[in-house]
Design a protein that fits this description.
This protein is of the alpha+beta class. It is about 30% helix and about 20% strand. The protein folds into two domains: about 80 residues, no CATH class; about 170 residues, no CATH class. It is globular. It comes from Rhodotorula graminis (strain WP1).
């Protein structure tokens, strides 16, 4: 963002071609909803993949190959010795050294921070998000949150979508100061969260995928008014688990860790009350 450079997401060629064929090939809508591809998206397959990533066999060799394939920067690891990661997942959920991700303007409570290392898209309203980015035919706030009361409080609110790629640091953090509220798990399938799928009308990724919804109880930094924030952790193809490291009722500061995703790509979706957030113009422009 600071340099205005464009970086292509790292992805093995075979994976890139496979996703293109699967999600943008001839008659892909019917193909992806076929019985064979439905089997690929079942939770049982993702659970089996999770067990594989928790297998300590040849862990160091697999981690080294993973780093090489995705060109991962290891200079900020809290534990720099790869031999001390017993499994692939232990490296995937790696911690960074303290201070590696300092929040912007740490003394300014009006600033909203990124929830994760990600590809970020932001929208001033749910309507804008549906118009520019989320093309699933059945996407609505009540469908995403599965909570009519919370959806009503956040009606047409501002949306931020933090999409994590497989090579990213996979711990997620607080965008604002808040008290951690209730978390609910919503069962679902495991579509990939790649943007080519999110932007395809055939797929309702955010409302069909397995996800956890955590309510953050924040306060407006200028008025003190209560501000509920929906913090949706979306699982994806091969994401074995969503784990929170902060308990309900705990007060966290902006940028504090809230939890992590195990192996795979994944996404955090934050929804703020209407009119409570004004995104930087360059982020809005790039999101459109």
């Amino acid at each position: 963002r600071s340099t205005d450079d464009t970086h292509l997401q790292h992805m093995p060629l075979s994976t890139r071609i496979g996703m293109r064929l699967l999600f943008h090939g001839l008659d892909h809508g019917r193909f992806v909803n076929s019985r064979r591809t439905e089997q690929v998206r079942r939770p049982s397959l993702t659970s089996r993949a999770g067990r594989k990533f928790d297998d300590p066999t040849h862990a160091c060799e697999r981690i080294t190959a993973f780093i090489r394939t995705y060109n991962i920067d290891c200079t900020q690891l809290r534990e720099p010795d790869l031999r001390n990661y017993p499994t692939m997942n232990s490296f995937f959920t790696r911690r960074l050294e303290r201070g590696a991700r300092p929040p912007a303007s740490p003394r300014d409570p009006t600033v909203v921070s990124s929830a994760a290392d990600c590809r970020l898209t932001v929208f001033s309203s749910v309507a804008d998000a549906k118009r520019f980015w989320i093309k699933g035919k059945h996407f609505t706030l009540p469908a995403l949150l599965q909570d009519s009361a919370l959806a009503g409080q956040l009606h047409n609110g501002a949306v931020a979508i933090f999409r994590l790629a497989v090579e990213d640091y996979h711990r997620f953090h607080m965008p604002v100061d808040a008290v951690v509220g209730e978390s609910r798990s919503i069962s679902g399938t495991y579509f990939t969260v790649n943007s080519m799928v999110v932007r395809d009308k055939h797929f309702d990724v955010f409302t069909e995928n397995k996800r956890d919804v955590t309510t953050l109880h924040a306060r407006h930094p200028l008025t003190g008014a209560a501000l509920p924030v929906a913090y949706v952790q979306v699982g994806a193809l091969l994401v074995a688990s969503i784990r929170r490291t902060a308990r309900e009722g705990k007060t966290l500061q902006r940028s504090n860790e809230l939890g992590y995703f195990a192996y795979g790509g994944s996404t955090v979706v934050c929804v703020f009350p209407q009119g409570s957030v004004e995104w930087d113009e360059d982020l809005v422009r790039n999101s459109e």
